[in-house]
Amino acid sequence: MVVISTNEIAIEAEDLDAFQHSPAAGAILLRDFILDKKILDMDGREVEVVYDVKLAFQAGKLYASEVDFSRHRLLRRLGLRHLANFFAQQRGSDSTVSWLYVQPLPDDLGSFSGDVKLNVLKSKILEMHPVDLADILEELDSGQRQALFNQLDPEHASETLEEIEPRVQRELMATMQHDRAARLIGEMSPAQAADILAILPASDADGILALMDAEDAGKVRRIVEHHDENILLFATQGCIRLPAQAIVQQVLADYRELAREKDVLTYLYVVDGEGRLLGVVGLRELVAADGDQTLGALMTEQLITLHPDETLRDAVHAISRYGLRAIPVVDENRRLLGVVSDHDVRGLKPRLD
Predict the structure, then answer these.
(1) Residue 308 to residues 273, 322, 323, 328: CA-CA distances in angstroms?
(2) Residues of the chain with pLDDT under 70
(3) Cα(290)–Cα(251) distance, integer angstroms
(4) Cβ pair 53, 62 in contact under 8 A
(5) Long-range contacts of the stretch 195-202 (C-beta < 8 A, 24+)
(6) Which of 262, 239, 173 lies closest to 209 in space, CA to CA?
(7) Angle at 137 between CA 136 and CA 138, to 5 degrees
(8) In the prediction, which pLDDT does 44 show?
(9) What confidence score (pLDDT) does residue 112 get?
């Protein structure tokens, strides 16, 4: 006989053997697979731990209705009800997720025995912004992290790898085949690639560089070895260049396509027919401008620029001094040669101090 009340579930049994059997296929064991396991909270873009499961009693049966990741729920499970109630009052409402949105992690995302995630399509995780995805990867266990990271396409994996802390970068790179690592590194700017390869053993870094395009590998190698700190090594061609007569409304309409595969998105660089830099328009100014304005009327002409003979040290100093997100590199005729972004040089700054 089974007696279910609000406080306990009591089973009277003369022969325990009748209750000993393997779980049915597809069954989810709450204690083994749910309690104290992690979920990926797609709303908050973070990893949470399930501390309790709420059960609903209907028609003589118990149903799992919600999972709760409020920490005071762990105290309640340990029998510290009064202490749990105290913390619950201090914190306010519980943090719960309906059981409808909970499922075991799928097989093709790795063998994560016991972990769960919110019931969303895998594509929602894989389309997440690299910064948010990096935060989640840093909180997962090693096996989970590797399995999820391996599902990313090279471009997304490369962008995410740039945002992950060095300790986790090192772990992911250490378990990665050199050919895949070379593809990911090849998606980065030379400065970003050098920043990641510098944390690896020299033999691993050399093995990855050997599989990359020779010209790109040469740029990265010179940065890693500090034999050449010329600023053009750190400059990217991935910036938005537009003529002065471009209309704000049309630029905004085309922005998604203009920004595709670009490295620097915060500024639009206004150039003439010869590629000479005339001015810069910030993305914020572009969005706030009247739709019929031209970029020529909107642009800032007094610019901080770098020249090809300047060094990484000069770029770091200028970016820090003026609080810029990126600095254009121009020649003696003001032709735009590339752009150095704060993102590319900030990881290398400690090496120059």
Answers:
(1) 21, 20, 21, 10
(2) 1-9, 18-19, 23-28, 32-33, 36-48, 69-79, 81-94, 97-127, 226-229, 346-353
(3) 12
(4) no
(5) 195/347, 195/348, 196/161, 196/162, 196/169, 197/224, 198/224, 198/351, 199/166, 199/169, 199/170, 199/173, 200/170, 200/173, 200/174
(6) 173
(7) 90
(8) 47
(9) 42
Check residue 269 and give its pLDDT.
97
DSSP code of residue 140 = S
In the chain, what percentage of residues exceed pLDDT 70?
70
What type of residue is 207?
G
CA–CA gap between residue 140 and residue 146 (Å, rounded): 9
> Of 176, 175, 179, 137, nearest to 45 (Cα)?
137
Length of the chain: 353
Question: Look-up: residue for tokens 């300790």?
Answer: 167
Per-domain residue ranges of the chain: 2-118, 122-228, 239-352
pLDDT attached to residue 113: 47
The residues with which 329 forms a beta bridge, in sequence order, are 306, 338
The residue type at 333 = N
Domain 239-352 has CATH 3.30.70.20: no
At the second CATH level, the architecture of 122-228 is Alpha Horseshoe (1.25)
pLDDT, residue 271, reads: 97
Gap between the Cα atoms of 216 and 219, Å rounded: 5
* Residue 128, CB-side half-sphere exposure with 13 Å CA sphere: 27
The pTM (predicted TM-score) of the whole model is 0.47
